[in-house]
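Lab manual, section 2.4: Encoding a predicted structure.

Procedure: take the sequence of the chain (94 residues), apply the prediction step described in section 2.3, and record the output as structure tokens. A sample record is shown.
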Amino acid sequence: MAAHLYVVQSSLSKAVVELEAEMGTAIFERSQRSVTLTEEGTRFLSYGRQVVELVVLLERQYQPGAKPLCRVFAVSAQRYAFVVNTFVVLVKEY
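Recorded output:
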């Protein structure tokens, strides 16, 4: 992972430890042979991904020359009337 971020492992490890201290929670559980996400770390990662996604959306929306946001919505369902009716309501609402 450190190579992917173009930093050395020790710098990445230090940054993670500092982040954990700043947030007041353990993101990773460390052992001699492995590193795994804690339950809190899993939530933290989920929130982090949402933040990154929002930054990308903001950049696409407001940076000069940015490509317009293209959204894809797909639905797969059996031919049940309630699915069709629910989908129609959803499309009208949004």
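Check your result against the sample. The longest helix spans residues 39-62.
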